[in-house]
Design a protein that fits this description.
The complex is a heterodimer of chains A (about 150) and B (about 200). With about 150 residues, chain A is mainly α. Helices cover about 50% and strands about 5% of the residues of chain A. Chain A has five helices and two strands. In chain A, strands 1-2 form a two-stranded antiparallel sheet. Chain A starts with 6 loop residues before the first helix and ends in a 17-residue tail after the last helix. The model of chain A is unreliable at about 135-140 (pLDDT under 50). Chain B is mainly alpha-helical. Chain B folds into two domains: about 1-100, Rna Polymerase Sigma Factor, Chain: A, CATH 1.10.1740.10; about 130-200, Winged helix-like DNA-binding domain superfamily/Winged helix DNA-binding domain (Arc Repressor Mutant, subunit A). Chain B is about 80% helix and about 0% strand. In chain B, helix 4 packs across helix 5 (about 55-70), helix 9 packs antiparallel against helix 12 (about 170-200) and helix 11 (about 160-165) packs across helix 12 (about 170-200). Classes of the chains: A mainly alpha (about 150), B mainly alpha (about 200). At the A-B interface, helix 1 and helix 2 of A face helix 4, helix 5, helix 9 and helix 12 of B.
């Protein structure tokens, strides 16, 4: 490099001489893999999942209650709605169990914009195992086929 | 997902304007979004490499830049400023990183030691053309973010002041002032090296 006493010229020459970095060939596939829709992108929120687990646990701990006749004060349409909700949540739980069994224990739930929120099914299963219950609901509602 | 070769084999997507590619990306056209990344990835990677001083970290942050852009596609109002918009996301990520590091102030000596170690271990740092460039990159790395960003965007990327102002969310006057200051700081930092070289 020639010795140029003008600092501005020297700086310009140095800046112009910096190599231009280019992206690696992996960048596009990596980004697309991260933004691609999941095979089953669950819209189920964490709160709904927690509700499902709570409901399943409640029903497990009171297996006979569901067979009892509704008390006169209970609105039949309300009961029907709850039953439907229960079945939907049970189905979601079953799906989660299937995903875990298929070796896909991490489920994408959503994003805060700064961080992804995921559900670790293995961890959840371990916790539930420690509490002595399985993933699948083990009770029946009126109308379910009895074993 | 598709490979780079498939993307390059589809020149139609590459011929579309940013606006058209954006519209298709919003309709979940993966190939269109891939073409958008392809168009702007080198700018983002080069900018982040100079901002962070490490090629690998820059690549990771560039990936995050495009992922965030995709997740908030609806927020971008297309006014032909996509380049500036992407650079703004990248700059915000760099700022967040700086803030995170500031929180670890108590561990700064350790962090700096590991950073120095990582940067010298970075293959790109080893491959730099020579001592003069090493001195320059070291001086750039020591600049505050508010001076470093406009310097890189103007002097290395060659962006017009208007786009730099948009990317950094400020006005052109501030950019010019910071650029002037950045150059003065760089010259001060490089002066000992230049003088030493002349006397040797």
């Amino acid at each position: 490099m020639t010795q140029d006493p003008d600092p501005d010229h020297q700086l310009d020459a140095l800046l112009a001489g910096l190599p231009h970095e280019t992206a690696s060939a992996d960048l596009i596939p990596a980004v697309l893999a991260r933004v691609a829709p999941r095979p089953r992108r669950l819209t189920l929120g964490l709160a709904a999942l927690a509700a499902a687990i709570a409901l399943a646990l409640t029903l497990v701990s009171h297996p006979n209650r569901s067979r009892e006749q509704p008390s006169p004060g209970v609105d039949p349409s309300q009961l029907e709605a709850l039953t439907q909700q229960y079945r939907q949540l049970a189905s979601e739980l079953e799906t989660l169990e299937l995903l875990r069994a298929a070796g896909r224990p991490i489920v994408y739930v959503g994003s805060t914009g700064r961080a992804d929120i995921v559900l670790d099914l293995e961890r959840l299963a371990r916790r539930r195992k420690n509490q002595g219950t399985g993933m699948a609901p083990a009770t029946f509602l009126p109308g379910d086929p009895q074993p | 997902m598709y490979a780079e070769s498939q993307l390059l084999a589809g020149p139609r997507a590459l011929c579309l304007s940013d606006s058209e590619l954006l519209a298709r990306s919003r309709a979940c056209d993966e190939q269109a979004f891939g073409a958008l990344i392809h168009r702007h990835q080198d700018l983002v990677v080069n900018y982040l490499t100079r901002m962070l001083g490490c090629r690998q970290e820059a690549e990771d942050m560039a990936q995050e830049t495009f992922v965030r852009f995709f997740r908030h596609l609806d927020r971008y109002t297309d006014q032909g400023t996509l380049r500036a918009y992407l650079l703004r996301i990248a700059t915000n990520l760099v700022r967040s990183r700086a803030r995170r590091r500031a929180r670890w102030h108590a561990l700064e000596p350790l962090v700096r030691a590991s950073e120095r170690h990582r940067q010298t271990a970075c293959p790109q740092a080893e491959a730099l053309a020579g001592e003069a460039q090493r001195q320059l990159l070291d001086a750039i790395a020591r600049l505050e973010l508010r001076f470093r960003a406009p310097l890189i965007l103007r002097e290395i990327e060659g962006l017009p002041y208007r786009q730099i102002a948009r990317a950094l969310d400020t006005n052109e006057g501030t950019i010019k002032s910071r650029l002037h200051r950045a150059r003065a700081l760089l010259k001060d930092m490089l002066e000992p090296y230049w003088k030493g070289r002349q006397s040797s």
